[in-house]
């Protein structure tokens, strides 16, 4: 059975796309995020249809996550067992997300829904990151250490039955908790084209209580398989993967992820979080303007429409 992979009709500078992939890959390696929460809206700014941007960015995230995860695996900072549980939940969530995505396509509302969800998510996440980074920088200037948060899972996580030991993560909990978390991220990955790391990383620390040393690498590990599954679903069901666009993003992303892993060992994490928070809020503002700004020509005719 042939799979139709439509090529985006917008003409985009290949070099800029590669640089975009490299920048997002850099963030992926540094913070353990898939980077789709920036890739997708930036592609929309270029004029790529949101549905195509979502599906194609998921392909790029897979490649950059492989590159970053291998680097952390070599350092012994990946919990394979925890990662597999997260993947199992993620694949289930991706299936549910595809049902929602297809329903939105059927009613013709997928583009506006994707943009609106991004505005909400990026505003909330960017605001929390900004508050955290500014607080840490103020404490550093005052000569005080930022208050350390103790890694400890939430009470409802401890109450779940069927506990397993995740040695590298320092946990003895039920696999149901990470599986539910993986399912949520998998659903968002399918609908929004995100890797889910910007949700997964803090959730692994503050909900599951994982050791910080294993969080980023394990996040990247699960992103590999979940985004690969979402790409396959988009290619076969919604047919919105632009393979040329994805390859250009992938080329830059793989290199950028390796540089991000190295930079994470050297640069100030507080200043990096501040810069990332400002970028996230800037993207959210740009998307909001795009949703509310009335264009000079509200109607347009296209050949074949």
Which descriptors apply to this entry?
two-stranded antiparallel sheet, 11 helices, 2% strand, globular, disordered C terminus
List the helices and strands and how they pair.
Layout: H1 14-31, H2 36-46, H3 50-74, H4 80-107, H5 110-141, H6 155-159, E1 164-166, E2 171-173, H7 176-192, H8 197-206, H9 212-238, H10 243-264, H11 269-292
Antiparallel strand pairs: 1-2
Helix pairs in contact: 1-3, 1-10, 2-3, 2-11, 3-9, 3-10, 4-7, 4-9, 5-11, 7-8, 7-9, 8-9
Can you put this structure into words, describing what you see?
The protein has 305 residues and is an all-alpha fold. 72% of the residues lie in helices and 2% in strands. It has one domain (14-143, 150-291). A hairpin with a 4-residue loop joins strand 1 and strand 2. It holds the Pfam family TauE. The chain crosses the membrane at residues 12-38, 44-72, 84-104, 110-130, 191-208, 215-237, 243-261, 273-293. Its main location: membrane.
């Amino acid at each position: 059975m042939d799979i139709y992979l439509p090529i985006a009709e917008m003409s985009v500078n290949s070099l800029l796309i590669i640089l975009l992939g490299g920048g997002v890959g850099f963030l992926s390696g540094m913070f353990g995020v898939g980077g789709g929460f920036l890739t997708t809206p930036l592609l929309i700014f270029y004029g790529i249809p949101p549905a195509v941007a979502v599906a194609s960015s998921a392909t790029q995230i897979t490649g950059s996550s492989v590159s970053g995860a291998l680097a952390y695996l070599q350092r012994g900072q990946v919990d394979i067992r925890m990662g597999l549980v997260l993947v199992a939940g993620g694949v289930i969530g991706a299936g549910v997300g595809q049902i929602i995505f297809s329903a939105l396509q059927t009613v013709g509302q997928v583009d506006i829904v994707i943009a609106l969800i991004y505005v909400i998510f990026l505003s909330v996440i960017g605001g929390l990151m900004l508050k955290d980074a500014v607080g840490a920088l103020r404490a550093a200037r005052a000569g005080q250490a930022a208050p350390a948060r103790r890694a400890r899972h939430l009470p409802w996580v401890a109450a779940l039955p069927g506990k397993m030991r995740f040695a590298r993560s320092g946990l003895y909990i039920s696999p149901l908790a990470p599986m539910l978390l993986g399912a949520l991220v998998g659903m968002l990955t399918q609908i929004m084209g995100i890797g889910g790391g910007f949700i997964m990383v803090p959730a692994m620390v503050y909900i599951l209580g994982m050791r910080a040393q294993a969080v980023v690498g394990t996040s990247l590990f699960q992103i590999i398989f979940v985004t690969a599954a979402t790409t396959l679903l988009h290619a076969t069901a919604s047919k919105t993967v632009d393979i040329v666009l994805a390859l250009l993003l992938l080329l830059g992303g793989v290199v950028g992820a390796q540089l991000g892993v190295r930079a994470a060992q050297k640069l100030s994490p507080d200043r990096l979080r501040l810069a990332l928070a400002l970028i996230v809020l800037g993207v959210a503002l740009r998307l909001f303007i795009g949703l509310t700004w009335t264009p000079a020509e509200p109607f347009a005719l296209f050949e074949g429409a």
